[in-house]
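call fold(seq) -> tokens
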Amino acid sequence: MTATPSDAPSGPGPGPSSGFATPRGGPVVGDTVLGTGVRTARRAVDDGLIGVPVAACAFITAPGPERPYPASELYDRPGGGPLFDTGPHHISALVHLLGPVSRVTATAPPPRAGERFEAEADTQVTGLLEHAGGALTTLVVNSGAHEGRLPRIEVHGTEGSLSLPDPDGSDGPVELHRAGGAWEPLPVSRASGGCRSTGRAPGELARHVLDVMLTLLDAARDGVWLPVSGDRARPEAVRP
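ret:
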């Protein structure tokens, strides 16, 4: 993934072993959206277990990298911060579950200077993502928290709700709450093949997620709703 759309590859690109994505059907990058957590939730949505999805929330609340990674200057420079570090996993999962994002708005407090270097990247971003299908996602990104117990992703529909594990990993339990019922774990949806199978995490998804994150920062700066450029489609589900 690149820091700006102009830096993204536009041609056939490197070979499959490189792990890079290209927007024209070439080699693609595998990501945690191919793990059992997102796959299980995607199947539940596609099978209508929660009815029509209408809302979602995604939270990234954890300490920054200063403690585990003392030499973390790059994290706090433009193109860094929690939105571009962990955000791609969450937004990719949301696009898989709810479809592409059509417009966004956000707010981001100005970065604060650290003891050894000035933090230039936004360490806290709160945004609203309007998906093409009409669902709204609340996204909270904060690397200044000491720790968090918020659900990583929840999706709410007309007939029930889904609770997903942290999409920064590739597995974990997915729970369903049907209207009038209680939380229940869903059977794990497994697929054959490795995470780097061609066609499962297309370059178009990587470009769309990058556009969403950059537009969030522009919207936070200007204090407005902004459309997300490009004509995107919901990625195909990974099936066994």
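The mean pLDDT is 76.
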